[in-house]
Design goal:
The protein is built from six helices and nine strands, in the order βαβαβαβββαβαβαβ. Helix 1 crosses helix 6, helix 3 runs parallel beside helix 4 and helix 4 runs parallel beside helix 5. Bound molecules: NADP nicotinamide-adenine-dinucleotide phosphate. The site of NADP nicotinamide-adenine-dinucleotide phosphate has 29 residues, from helix 1.
């Protein structure tokens, strides 16, 4: 049985990844900001025969990340999925970008994933073939053809660059990759998006399963294609 750590596991893509990994027999360490109100995740954990355990972690809070890692102790982590994300504010037009929103986007989606990796590196090192997957977005690619979305797109671009460096630093020990999950029908993606969470999570899981050490540092799409940077 593998141990899979997922951040932002209480709704959206994170919840569906949790459901699918547990369904296939993996143990999922499902992290969220407020377990006491994570009804869908708690119901999943309750029905999972202890395969899903629910834990507290706010990825914007370094102390919360450290406390979460201490609670896990020296348990090996086979797969770490940096999933938690936010829109980065409602108004991201050129004439109205809020600085606090911008900082929060970087705190949650750039510094957060990096600190989560730092905190659980010892656990990853205890696994046989550990993998880190960070969920980014096509909007962080320089090939994204649209303007606007300043806070969100720049945070995803930054985390792409951070993960390239992490992939280099850890290449002897951990396989580190990025994935665009598709445009997915979640609170973030909205009701008109292309994919269901089931389709996106299944694609992400297939990509993670197929990755070898030779793929370290690559940027994927949910369907297994390589994403242009
Ligand atoms: N949906 C899409 O079309 C799409 C496209 C490209 C990329 N993505 C990326 O895919 C990932 C998942 O998105 P989603 O569509 O599933 O979004 P979602 O439904 O809005 O869920 C976001 C998740 O992130 C959690 N989160 C936010 N801030 C957090 C923090 N500080 N600490 C811990 N957890 C936090 C949320 O927890 P709370 O319930 O506590 O807020 C929630 O569980 C994100 O990284 C997103 O940027 C999504």
């Amino acid at each position: 049985m593998r141990n899979v750590l997922i951040t932002g596991a209480n709704r959206g893509i994170g919840l569906e990844l949790t459901r699918q990994y547990a369904h296939d027999g993996d143990a999922v360490l499902a992290f969220c900001r407020t377990p006491q109100s994570a009804d869908a995740l708690n119901a999943l954990a309750h029905a999972s025969n202890r395969r899903v355990t629910v834990h507290t972690m706010d990825v914007a809070d370094e102390r919360s990340i450290r406390t979460a890692a201490q609670a896990i102790g020296d348990r090996p982590i086979d797969i770490l999925i940096n999933n938690a994300g936010i829109k980065g504010g409602e108004n991201q037009n050129i004439d109205a970008v809020d600085t606090a929103d911008w900082i929060e986007a970087f705190t949650v989606m750039v510094i957060g994933p990096f600190r989560v990796i730092q905190a659980f590196l010892g656990n990853l090192r205890k696994a046989k073939n550990p993998k880190i997957m960070t969920i980014t977005s096509q909007m962080g690619a320089t090939t994204w053809p649209m303007g606007g979305s300043y806070t969100y797109a720049s945070a995803k671009a930054a985390v792409n660059r951070v993960m390239i460096a992490v992939a280099r630093d850890l290449e002897a020990e951990v396989t580190v990759n990025l994935i665009h999950p598709g445009w997915v029908r979640t609170d973030m993606g909205g009701p008109d998006a292309d994919l269901t969470t089931e389709e996106s999570a299944a694609g992400i899981r297939n990509v993670i399963a197929s990755i070898t050490k030779a793929d370290n540092g690559k940027f994927y799409k949910w369907n297994g294609e390589i994403h242009p940077w």
